Amino acid sequence: MADKPVPADPTKPMSPQAVDGAVVVHDPPEAAMNLTADAAEISGLRLIDAADKARKRF
Predict the structure, then answer these.
(1) Beta carbons of 50 and 16 less than 8 angstroms apart
(2) pLDDT tens for residues 1-58?
(3) What pairs with residue 17 in β-bridges?
(4) Are 31 and 6 in contact (CB under 8 A)?
(5) Backbone dihedral angles phi then psi of residue 22, each to the nearest 5 degrees
(6) Against a cut of 0.85, is the pTM above it?
(7) Contact at 8 Å (CB) between 57 and 18?
(8) Bridge partner residues of 24 (DSSP)
(9) In this structure, are residues 33 and 8 in contact, taking their beta carbons and an 8 Å threshold?
């Protein structure tokens, strides 16, 4: 019997980073993400910030 993968913590926002002009999210979930409203909002703001930094890289 295979172990089921541990579901991602829905309260933990993503941590994207600007890397060489691109936005990178390490270890994103393979399936659809389930986030709380607060985690989704924080993730969105972090993505916007990383995109801004990535654009300024070039």
Answers:
(1) yes
(2) 567 666 678 888 889 999 999 999 987 776 778 889 999 999 999 999 999 999 997 5
(3) 24
(4) no
(5) -130, 160
(6) no
(7) yes
(8) 17
(9) yes
DSSP-H helix ranges across the chain: 37-57
User: What is the residue type of 37?
Assistant: A
Tokens of 28: 């994103």
Give the number of residues written for the chain.
Answer: 58
Q: How far apart are CA 48 and CA 51, in angstroms?
A: 5
Copy the structure tokens of residue 4.
Answer: 């089921």
Q: Are 45 and 39 in contact (CB under 8 A)?
A: no
Instruction: Return the closest-CA partner of residue 17 out of 6, 27, 31.
Output: 27
Task: Compute φ and ψ for 8, nearest 5 degrees.
Answer: -65, 150
Around 38, how many Cα atoms within 13 Å sit in the side-chain half-sphere?
4
